[in-house]
Structure formats: C-alpha cells, structure tokens
Amino acid sequence: MRAMIWDLGGTLVDTYPDVDRALAGAIDPRPGPELLHEVALLTRVSSSRAIDTLASRHGVPAAHLRAAYEQTKELWTHRPPPVMAGARALLAAVRGADGLNLVATHRDRASALALIDALELPIDDLVCPGDGYARKPSPSMIRALLERHALNPEACFAVGDRPADVEAAVAAGVRAFLLHTPGVPLEAPGDLRTPSLDALIGLFTAREQS
Questions:
Q1: CA angle 85, 91, 96 (to 5 degrees)
Q2: What is the three-state SS of the chain?
C-alpha cells in the first residue's frame, strides 16, 4: 500500500492569503504590497515565528497579532479558503491507485477537520500536535501515520510548502516534495522541488506502474 502524506495549510488548502491579510491588517489597516510580502516570507516558515517577528519589528503586541490570526478560523467557518490548485486531482490519483491520503498538520484537530469537512476532502487519516506528537520538523507525526497504517516509508510520498514539512518526512525515510511558493525562496535538505501539485500526479502514476 502506498500513501501521500500531506501538509494541510498552504499545501492542501490555500490558507495563506487570509492569514497574511489578517496579520498585515493588524499592523496597518490598509497594508501595501511590501508589508504583505514581508508577512508572506515569515508565514511560510511558521505562523508563530511570523507573529513574534512582526511584533518585534513593528511594535505591535503579539497578542494582537495572534488574535488576528485566530479570527481567520472564525472566517473559515462560513467561508472556507479554496483548495490548492491541483490538490483535488492529486487526491483522486492517490485514491484511484488504492493509496491513502494522510495529513500531518500543525493546525489544531478541530480547525483541521472543520476545513477538511467544509471542503469535502477525501482524507483517510490525520495527526496533529494536539494528539501528543511533536511539531515538525520532528518526524513523530509522520512516523505515527506510517506505523498506524503499516506503511513502508520508501513506498510513500510527502508534500509540504515549508522546509519543516520536508525535514520531518525525510527524517522518517519518506521521499518529500517542497511545493514552491512564487516569490518566497525556501529550501530544505533532501527536498525535491515541485512547481505545482499537478506535477506530482504523473510522478505518482509512474511509480504505481513501475
């Protein structure tokens, strides 16, 4: 059995635009492109780092930024963010090959499941730090999914938009793809770059046929 291990926000679901606007808006009610780009560079590393760094740089209380970030979850209860381009096709390709679509996310379980349910995503299992696992780049969430489903790491793929996603998967022995975000230069040891999720459909199909 093979599987795709997904990150959620920024990989499976396009959460960044709402998060970036919320954090930038907490600094300036009418944020310009420079501020939005500054925020984007930070959120692609981690939301917590973005909040701490922006609070220090702009003299805004971290609690104010964190509250703006949490408000995005309330927004998503009635207007969920869109699925990332190519995600549904890749999910279907994995399912069509009798594989599993698994999620390892830093998002709390309730918020993650709310997004998955609202967008009707065919996810077979999900783990998060609230389940008792360390956050990425620790491989503990990836290893938990592998063990739970008796998966050979070499027969699985992982995809994420942050270096920590790749580092966690590689440490667990899983081949990992770093999803490129235009204008945001990121790299991680052992990553395989992909410009889009669509590009992974052929790679997965080729692996299934090999």
A1: 140
A2: CCEEEECCECCCECCHHHHHHHHHHHHCCCCCHHHHHHHHHHHCCCHHHHHHHHHHHHCCCHHHHHHHHHHHHHHHHHCCCCECCCHHHHHHHHHHCCCEEEEECCCCHHHHHHHHHHCCCCCCEEECHHHCCCCCCCCHHHHHHHHHCCCCHHHEEEEECCHHHHHHHHHCCCEEEEECECCECCCCCCCEEECCCHHHHHHHHHHHHC
Taken as a whole, the chain contains a residue count of 210
Residue 44 to residue 160: CA distance in whole angstroms: 11
CA distance 61 to 80: 27
pLDDT tens for 123-146 read: 999 999 999 999 999 999 999 999
For the chain, what is the largest distance between any 2 Cα atoms, rounded to a whole number of angstroms?
55
Torsion, Cα of 74, 77, 78, 82 (10° steps): 100
* Residues ≥6 apart with Cβ < 8 Å to 12: 6, 83, 84, 87, 103, 121
Residue 180's pLDDT is: 85
Q: Which residue has the tokens 């970036």?
A: 20
